[in-house]
Design brief:
Elements (H helix, E strand, L loop, with lengths): L4 H19 L17 H4 L4 E5 L4 E5 L2 H6 L2 E3 L3 E2 L12 E8 L2 E8 L8 E5 L18 H10 L4 E5 L6 H17 L5 E6 L3 H8 L2 H6 L2 E5 L11 H5 L3 E6 L7 H13 L4 E7 L5 H5 L2 H10 L1
Length: 299
């Protein structure tokens, strides 16, 4: 059954009302599952856990290429099967160029430009641009689910084009965080970075002004920051989730796991998901966005 634009708007508004009440209440959501309601969980969330440790903060997830790529995609690594995507969310999507204190930043925005219940920003890796994080069919439809989870519940999702992963790239995302926070004052902002884009996340973590606006971060298949414990993000004890493939040939999973373990010893709020036999792009395909966002929103 197809929904009209008006049907979608009404449903989104109702969902946003209840989500806003949960996220913005004085005590926050009572449980992680209280914030974002299920969306295609039967396809994305039913993952086999091979091992857990650290009281559930560390987990090893079963990953199988034949099942999780070939069995999920109509065209492997290019187009997910139709059941994994819901394209009605495209009505809330727009390509924009923002002017942020003299920096021009191309973004794909999904959801309201102002008064969003919460904001999620995704930073791509090398050779990517804003299209990567907005592609409905790549990575098994996982970005389509993210867009539906965010914009479908009154939030706003930004997928920007980061031209470099140095101080200039960090400055551009600092500007986007300021902009998003000004558009939706007092609302949570969650930053997620993949691969080389994680250098942007670590740079943002050092900026006190940005950290004051953030709710938490997700690092997928990223580099490790040996000086993270000196950052403003660390001092603020904001939640940090790591996701990595055990066979990542670009950035070793062991490096991120070592940082996670040191943070756990310091009683820092952190989580580590390792996809057994997973490659460099596996976390982008396999991360359970609803679970991650609920964990950060509930912190």
């Amino acid at each position: 059954m197809r929904m009209s634009t008006s049907d979608y708007t009404v449903i989104s508004a109702i969902a946003a009302f209840f989500l806003s009440a949960a996220v913005l209440s004085a005590g926050g959501p009572s449980r992680a599952g209280d914030a974002l309601p299920p969306f295609k969980d039967e396809l994305f969330s039913k993952q086999s856990v091979l091992q857990t440790s650290d009281g559930g903060a560390s987990e090893v997830i079963d990953y199988d290429e034949m099942r999780d790529i070939n069995g999920r995609d109509q065209i492997p690594e290019k187009r997910a099967q139709q059941k994994y995507v819901s394209l009605g969310i495209r009505k809330a999507q727009a390509d924009e160029t923002l002017s942020l204190d003299g920096i021009r930043l191309d973004v794909t925005r999904v959801g309201p430009a102002a008064n969003a219940v919460f904001t999620v920003i995704f930073i791509h890796g090398r050779d990517g641009d804003r299209r990567l994080g907005a592609n409905d069919y790549s990575f098994g439809g996982n970005f389509n689910r993210l867009k539906n989870l965010v914009a479908g519940n009154g939030g706003v999702y930004y997928s920007p084009t980061v031209k470099s992963f140095d101080s200039n790239g960090v400055a551009a995302i600092e500007g986007l965080i300021r902009y998003a926070s000004a558009q939706s004052p007092g609302r949570p902002v969650i930053l997620s970075c993949a691969s080389m884009g994680s250098q942007v996340c670590w740079g943002i973590a050092r900026d006190e002004a940005s950290v004051k606006r953030l709710k938490g971060m997700l690092i997928m298949s990223g580099v490790t920051d040996p000086d993270f414990t000196r950052s403003a993000f660390y001092k603020a004890k904001l939640p940090l989730w790591f996701a990595h493939g055990s066979r990542d040939p670009v950035y070793a999973a062991a490096d991120q796991q070592a940082l996670f373990e040191s943070l756990r010893k310091a009683k820092y709020p952190t989580h580590f998901t390792l996809f057994q036999t997973g490659n460099h792009g596996t976390p982008i395909r396999m991360i359970d966005w609803r679970r991650v966002l609920n964990w950060i929103l509930a912190a």
